[in-house]
Amino acid sequence: MDFTFSEEQTMLQDATRRFISNEARFDQRQQAKKTPSGYSSKVWQGFADLGLLALLATEEDGGLGGSAIDAMLVMGVMGEGLVIEPYLASAVLATKMISLSGNPEQRARYLPDLISGAAVAVLAHDETTTRFDRLHISTSAKPATETGGYVLNGHKSVVPHGASADLLLVTARMPDQGLSVFAIAKSTPGLRILPYTTVDGIAAAEIYLDQVIIPANCLLDAQSDAEAALKQTLDLGIAAVCAEAVGVLDKLLAATIAYAKNRQQFGVVIGKFQALQHKMADMVLYIEQARSMSYLAAVRSEDRDTISRRIALSSAKAVIGQACRFVGQQAVQLHGGMGVTDELDVSHYFKRLMAIELQFGSTDYHLEVVAQRLVS
Prior knowledge:
Strand content: 15-25%
Distance between the termini: 29 Å
Helix content: 40-55%
Structural class: alpha+beta
Number of strands: 9
Radius of gyration: 21 Å
Shape: globular
CATH class of the largest domain: Mainly Alpha
Number of domains: 3
CATH superfamily of the largest domain: Butyryl-CoA Dehydrogenase, subunit A, domain 3
Strand order of the largest sheet: 2-3-7-6
Number of helices: 11
């Protein structure tokens, strides 16, 4: 298979990398984390101006109609820059969910603001009892006979950027209808949002829904099979974090090699020690395996065959999860005590890799998925 990127894709990647290196450097990231939203509104608007927020929206909806490969290239650069803006949450997951599940009126209502950067939407799906089972949802939605809308009750856990988002895409179960997705404004009465920051510096929130009453048109109803739309969206999310992980891994390897060339021990640079050379060679092998699996995840994330798509994505996530753990640990150890300090970006890359290893399912979980599919 030819993995040569087109001229347009290369330009997209280079423009994104150039913008992040100028406007979202590590020191700027650390300052942005202290803001109420947990990220830089200037950087977010810059993403919109570059067209990155329109990447996965269809041309019919005013977007660029980009592919999963395009998203992979952008997410790789996001990983290199340790971006904390809600690109994955809003421009990838939420935009994809609305594109798949929203009717024409709903897409026209929500997508223009997401594309322009005027609003942020997030997918509020995971719950404390989900345990990586994407369909294990206890949040309930019942028809509100008085208003003609719906009443929602439940608790969504670890929702990235849940406190700063303007729109929440809440998954819930309705009696006799299965899984549904509702677009709920953050200001809706009955919502209680508890914000916090995760270990990798990303803003997140617990979201409680207590008798939340919403109009009937908040139900995303273009696609009757909401479960299929959710699976496709989450599979795209897996491919996106796989690409992000490769960007992080590349930066960790480069930082480790540079450190080994300069750090001296016993009057000799440590990069000349054969044992450490072997460790860095192993890091390269893990990263190249991860890169190949990231390409696989991006290519297969759009397959219509859900079974083969799931096996491919779980395989990629498992291999990349192993790379995250090995390369991250080696990078920290080779940097010595400096590798765990907040002042050095290495520790922040390490924390992001550990978060990615668990996001959308841990390595062990995805290995089990692949094993079960192979024996069934």
